[in-house]
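# step 3/5: fold
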Amino acid sequence: MMTVQSFSAYDAKALRLLSGVLFDVKRTVEGAVMVPLSEHERADVTRVVADRLMRVFDLGERNHDALKRAALAGLKTSLAGR
């Protein structure tokens, strides 16, 4: 399974894009739940979102908003499977 550390495999331009999207998605999730997430919950969100971001990025997507939508969709799918 991929982890956030896998971001290191990307060049600086890709890293800036992926990190920015990851930050935006985490901020969106925390705002949507309206309660502080536990450390474990934040780690789960980061893991799922980072995995989805890298998959979509590796398929060629480079648009910030499209990456964010894909990451949120992946998180929603992951949560629905619990």
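# step 4/5: annotate
The chain has three helices and no strands.
# step 5/5: archive (pending)
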